[in-house]
């Protein structure tokens, strides 16, 4: 059974200084809980310091530093760059939708979210691991989306929802791979989210062709509806799992952060949808 975070902290409390306790919580815990098969990969092998630094630098740039630098600068057009970037993400997400479907045995694999026994890897799970690591890296590649908004001075696109979503997704993927890389939750999220992102980045790709294509983009609002549907799926799966006690073996650190995310995301995306497409109902 997976060692639980609060028990580890209690063990660290015995005969240690306050500094040592903090070091354990912020660094050593993540080293100890990382499976040996994960440790060779960049950003995932040791403590979270480098990963956290990268995420904080991105956050500072897109929220404060970048907009301040660009305030007196001419916006970058980046049309060709965006076309290539969005095309790459379409292919990436098509690939991972198909790959995650294979992980799930095309729906025949049990979707029970109980955590598998620690350090017991099947040959299939070992073979799947490199692709799961690459999927985590693609969540970092997604961060360029916001950087391009900054460089193009599209400040209205850099909403709290956008920043929160892009900031939290890599963090959740990082925590899952560090603490419970074999969970079926990772595979389900990858499958559903890759389908959603295939549609979304296809829209971004087509829209980058210029103003003449805008009349053909009437289906934009349906992207948000699909996003709402995915959070309904996640939320229902989570509630069922909690009801049947299937989440108790997960690390408490992950439970604290992940449990309420489907509901938080649904609320924020719903507010975005209403504000963007159905303002009359806000009256």
TrEMBL record:
The chain crosses the membrane at residues 50-70, 82-101, 133-151, 158-177, 183-206, 226-246, 252-273. GO terms for molecular function: fatty acid elongase activity. It is found in: Membrane. It is a multi-pass membrane protein. Its EC number is 2.3.1.199. It catalyses: a very-long-chain acyl-CoA + malonyl-CoA + H(+) = a very-long-chain 3-oxoacyl-CoA + CO2 + CoA. GO terms for cellular component: endoplasmic reticulum membrane. Keywords: Fatty acid biosynthesis, Fatty acid metabolism, Lipid biosynthesis, Lipid metabolism, Membrane, Transferase, Transmembrane, Transmembrane helix. One of its GO terms (biological process) is fatty acid elongation, monounsaturated fatty acid. It comes from the Eukaryota. Belongs to the ELO family. This is Elongation of very long chain fatty acids protein. It comes from Medioppia subpectinata. The lineage of its organism: Eukaryota, Metazoa, Ecdysozoa, Arthropoda, Chelicerata.
């Amino acid at each position: 059974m997976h060692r639980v975070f609060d028990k580890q902290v209690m063990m660290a409390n015995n005969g240690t200084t306050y500094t040592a306790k903090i070091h354990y919580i912020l660094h050593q815990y993540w080293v100890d809980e990382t499976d040996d098969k994960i440790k060779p990969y960049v950003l995932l092998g040791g403590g979270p310091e480098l990963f956290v630094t990268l995420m904080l630098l991105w956050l500072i740039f897109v929220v404060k530093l970048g907009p301040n630098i660009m305030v007196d600068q001419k916006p970058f057009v980046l049309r060709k760059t965006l076309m290539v970037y969005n095309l790459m993400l379409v292919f990436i997400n098509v690939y991972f939708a198909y790959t995650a479907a294979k992980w799930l045995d095309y729906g025949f694999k049990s979707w029970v979210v109980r955590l598998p026994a620690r350090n017991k890897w099947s040959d299939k799970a070992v073979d799947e691991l490199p692709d799961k690591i690459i999927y985590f890296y693609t969540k970092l590649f997604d961060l360029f989306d916001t950087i391009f908004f900054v460089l193009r001075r599209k400040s209205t696109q850099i909403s709290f929802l956008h920043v929160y979503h892009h900031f939290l997704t890599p963090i959740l993927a990082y925590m899952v791979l560090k603490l419970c890389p074999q969970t079926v939750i990772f595979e389900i999220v990858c499958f559903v989210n890759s389908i959603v992102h295939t549609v979304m980045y296809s829209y971004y790709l087509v829209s980058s062709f210029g103003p003449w294509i805008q009349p053909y983009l009437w289906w934009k609002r349906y992207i948000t509806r699909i996003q709402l549907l995915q959070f309904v799926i996640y939320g229902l799966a989570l509630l069922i799992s909690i009801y049947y006690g299937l989440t108790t073996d997960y690390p408490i650190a992950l439970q604290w952060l992940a449990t309420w995310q489907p509901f938080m995301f649904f609320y924020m995306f719903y507010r975005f949808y209403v504000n963007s497409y159905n303002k009359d109902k806000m009256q």
